[in-house]
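Subject: for your reference before the review

Hello V.,

The reviewers asked for a structural picture of the protein, and I figured it would be easier to keep everything in one thread rather than splitting it across files. Below is the amino acid sequence we used in the manuscript, unchanged from the supplementary table.
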Amino acid sequence: MTRPQHGGRLRAAAARWNIPLANWLDLSTGINPHVWPIPELPAQVWQRLPEDEDGLAEILQHWLQAPSSQHCLPVAGSQAAIQALPRLRAPCRVAVPVIGYAEHGWAWQQAGHQVLPLTSVQMAAQLDQLDVVVWIQPNNPTAEYLPPEVLSDWQARLACRGGWLVVDEAFLMPGQTSLAPQVDREGLLVLRSLGKFFGLAGIRAGAVAGPPAVLAALADGLGPWALSGPSRHVMAAAVQDTRWQQMMAGHLMRQSQRLEQLLAHHDLPVTGATPLFAYIQDERAGRLAEQLARQGVLVRYFDTPQALRFGLPGSEDDWQRLDEALSATLDETH
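And here is what came back from the structure prediction:
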């Protein structure tokens, strides 16, 4: 495996296409364009070292509905846990989604594990020969969503042999079933993030829910002050703002439906979708991505299989621009 590439590399696109940074419409990340409104932060948040006793673990317990605060660990985005968890196990057989967030497979491989990229059907069939299964719920970028009872069954079967089920819920929405309330079960680890739904990717804040012994080892590996004071403060406020979360969940559902309709209007049927992005498999994906980029519209391109991921436009002007860019692009590719 080579180091994964990601969406959101807007400066690289600006340089490649010679289009000023401010002139881009970036739909490449799947991040909510309607960011949770960050309040002014108290001066001491910037001045003092972060403290584990600030109540954040208890706040996360309530947000995640975890069994206890000892089952919750704040981390610098779920990426921090993705990189650190593989170092907590001796080399073993690890299944990751064959199409999915590639940092999972990369991190397990770099830690010396045998990584097996599998479909969900293959994971189920080979489960008894695996030591760790990583599942993304819903999957990024395909949007595949497994019934929670299926994942619970996987956890039980893996745990019988000392195995782990790692569930990445970065794109999970309010109202969808999280496995975090079940993390008192052996070998179940759930990753959450403020980067997608809350639109707060820049503060690098997330949480891991899991067995206390595993979280203690993870915390030791990450070291002290792994999550900054400002990030802890913002995270605590955001996850407690249930009114905003409920409002935003409904808004994103409507926007997602609008995106699917717009793409269908341009003869781009959606293969899979979450409220934050639409995924389209199309043999023209590479050409479509390039033609959109020439117009300053950045989408996420995947080459195996040929596919595009479209995030949500953030304003009416952005919606109009995407509509016009798709019209011009498809006229050129026909």
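For the response letter, the relevant points are probably these. The CA atoms of residues 54 and 326 lie 48 Å apart. The mean pLDDT is 95.

Happy to draft the paragraph if you're swamped.

O.
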